[in-house]
Predict the structure.
Amino acid sequence: MPLEICKNARASHSSICKDLDYALPDKGFCASQQMYYYGYKLHGICSLNGVFQSVEITPASVHDIHMLKDIKWKYKECTVLGDRGYVSADYQLNLFETVNIKLETPMRKNQLDYKKQPHVFRKSRKRIETLFSQLCDQFRIRQNFAKSFIGFKTRILSKITALTLIQYLNKFVFNRPINKLKVNLF
């Protein structure tokens, strides 16, 4: 998910999040929204029931496929459902051979031997898209008021923590559906 820190017109003279050399924002393109933006990307891995297992913030110019390098150090012997940004036969083979992770991504329509992704994978993949949508609409994760990267990162992680806390309360305290986030807590 793209996380814009300022509009493109202000990007060249903006000082937002430029306090740490290793975490500088950058210009990137979001294919799903057909927009260029200046900021970061939020990569998330969630379970089938919709609980975040791992999140990572990268500069906007970093390609999605590079996050797969980090997955093999955190997970093993599982199936990971990704979007079209993670299509790479080399990375899929490497993940499978090194840690037995099966990466399932939908094929692009212009690929040879195109096959539609099975319904069960598409339905499961929709869970992370719904989580990102809830973070945008209910938690306003895309509105940035932070001036430093530490503040920005803290703000993003606090939104994800709040979402996870509500999921926990729904499941174990109120016996409600886990991802019904718009209900009153009491």
